Amino acid sequence: MTTQITADAPPSAASSIVTDRVQRRATLPGRITRTHVPGRDGRLHVTRPEARRDLSVIRREDILRIVGAALGALTATGWLFTQLLPFQGVLPFALIAYVLFLALFVVLISFDEDRVTIVDRVMAVVIHSAALLLLLVMSVVVVFTLVRGSDAFLQPNFWVEDLSVTGPLEPLTQGGMAHAALGTLIMISIALAISIPLGLLTAVMMAEFPSPFTRLVRTVCEAMTALPSIVCGLFIYATYILMFGFDQSGFAAALAVTIMILPIIIRSADVVLRLVPQTLKEASLATGASHWRTVWHVVLPTSKSGLMTAIVLGTARGIGETSPVLLTAGWTTFFNANPFSGAMVSLPFATFTLVKSPEPTQIARGFGAAAVLMALVFLLFLLARIIGGKGPGILSPRQLARVRRQSAQDMERIEARAAHDLAPTGFAPGGEARPTREAGR
Fold it and tell me: Which residue intervals define the domain ABC transmembrane type-1 in the entry (predicted)?
């Protein structure tokens, strides 16, 4: 509600009149001071205070609007598909229904809300829709893989046997993917053992010791993050196998996987290390600590959770690759625990090979291998989250209890030392009097 003040007096006189009235009304109990905004014509406009809008609360009206817009969009799209539009299929129906849903939702909000609230609600709906779509796609992929491979991985022999005595026509009660799971674990373990120290040291060098060489290394790492996986396999095949004369093995595949995951770990760790507040480093240096001790005791512990995330990203990239393993590891149906001798197969390569077979049992074994790979990746991610812990400054209940116990022990030690210093004068073991702080006083 806006009240316009007009008078024959000039704007300065009208301004003084309004100011006097506002000051008198502000002294009265129960009065709300109004805002005075000069208009374009030079006159003052008295407005009521704007009501505070809470955009973070989901009200019942918002849910009713979403449901109403969704129902209206579905019915309108169904009528358009059956009467007017020549489109067919689920994808055009979903796209048109979603566009109509947003339009109807905007119309319903515009009856009661202003433009700021409309934009906020629409963006919230779009973001939540994208998250729901991503979750739906991931669920479909996981469920489809589990359903297609359930006939294979539900058999007990699938987890403990290999395919050495199992032919394509053998039933699913014979053979398994244990040799491929073992090969995957060996390959990724060797790759991580090489890439984690090199990646973290390189990231520390780029984040803490800037130089022209550092900028060159960062540029090369950024370019290698988009390197095709087949190029990594070709490089190891041309050098390690053809040039040096070694055979295809699990170690050769691990080297190819290392080339893939090393730039990812370096770039992710570099970003995490540069996010550490500069004030923490300055505080450590102010206490007299060296640069290396500051990095070791301040920077790395502070960014531990982010560094584990970088390692997890690299692991996820390398554990599911097929092209480098295809050229460097070879194919075998036997157990092989020696990564330096003989061919070694991995779960992605086994999946790629088995699903190409025309036999239903082999296809089921391939999807079962993919299901085992997903379970293995989930376990590795869970282990990384447990090792990485929470963010800096956030303690788990066990860590908080350990800190409290340590504080209690420190307090007991301080009290015991204080009691010893304040003890009465005694005699030293040699028979001479030993003055204490009280005796000195």
Answer: 181-384
